[in-house]
Amino acid sequence: MTILVGYNASKESERAVIEAAVAARARGVPLHVLWFHIHAAGDSFRQVERDTHEWVDLQETLDALADKLRESGVEVRTELRHGLKPQAASVILDLADEIDAQMIVLGWRPRSRVTEAVLGGVAREVLQRTKRPVLSVPAASGDG
Length: 144
Description:
Elements: E1 2-7, H1 11-27, E2 31-39, H2 45-53, H3 55-71, E3 76-84, H4 88-98, E4 101-108, H5 113-119, H6 122-129, E5 134-138
Parallel strand pairs: 1-2, 1-4, 2-3, 4-5
Helix pairs in contact: 4-6
């Protein structure tokens, strides 16, 4: 078993990784960090291809994060995937099934009801669709 945490270099996801690392260390299980890179719905093939070339930078950031976590005593696996925002929750849930995650950890930031209705929320969708425990880590009050 393992703990799955969603990451995207935001303050919310950085806080989620910290909480997930604490939980993994306490349970003596590995931490699986997923970075789902979101493309804009209107991106051309050329833009998606350009984004894919930037994966080297994303992977280096993910590797540096994994190194810090390992230094703190956490066994870490990382994964970088990409797609459109509506796919994000499904990717998280499918990966949770693949790795038999005992818990999913996600960061989130409070939004107005209107913003949430228009943009939707990956964390909300995961919460609604999973049977696994989910630790939702809110943004710090000053992170707004």
